[in-house]
């Protein structure tokens, strides 16, 4: 059974940093794009970042470039999201996904008080 399990969320003050992890199990995803979305209260789920199978190409929302960085470790079947200079508007549940198969994790909450 395939599982994507996010971790690393929490409460952090504005300007702080968090590193989210998404560990996949049940099969390997080293040949596929993996990515992150987020959903803030009362808003639709939005794209955050994605990374190619080898890690050579990354994609992210323009507004987050320079603050959020996606990376992966295929040996660990894990994708990461480094988030710096966090703002109150980054408050959301962050989800890991493998778009090719429409797999999603249950999400991890990130809260940045205003």
Give your account of this protein's structure.
The chain has strands at 3-7, 10-11, 18-25, 34-39, 46-51, 58-60, 68-73, 78-83, 92-98, 103-104, 108-111. The chain is mostly beta strands and 114 residues long. Strands 2, 4, 5, 6, 9, 10 and 11 form a seven-stranded mixed sheet that branches. Strand 7 (68-73) and strand 8 (78-83) form a beta hairpin. The radius of gyration is 13 Å and the shape is globular.
Compact overview of the structure:
This protein has 114 residues and is mainly β. It has no helices and 11 strands.
Number of strands: 11
In the predicted model, the low-confidence regions spanning at least 5 consecutive residues are none
DSSP helical segment count: 0
N-to-C SSE series?
EEEEEEEEEEE
Head-to-tail CA distance between termini: 39 Å
Mind telling me the C-alpha Rg? 13 Å
Largest sheet data: 7 strands, mixed
From the helix content, strand content and strand pairing, which structural class follows?
Answer: mainly beta
Query: What proportion strand?
Result: over 45%
Estimate percent helicity: under 10%
Q: Calculate the mean pLDDT score and round it.
A: 95
Shape: globular
Note the topology:
Elements: E1 3-7, E2 10-11, E3 18-25, E4 34-39, E5 46-51, E6 58-60, E7 68-73, E8 78-83, E9 92-98, E10 103-104, E11 108-111
Which structural traits does this protein have?
114 residues; mainly beta; seven-stranded mixed sheet; four-stranded antiparallel sheet; 11 strands; 0% helix
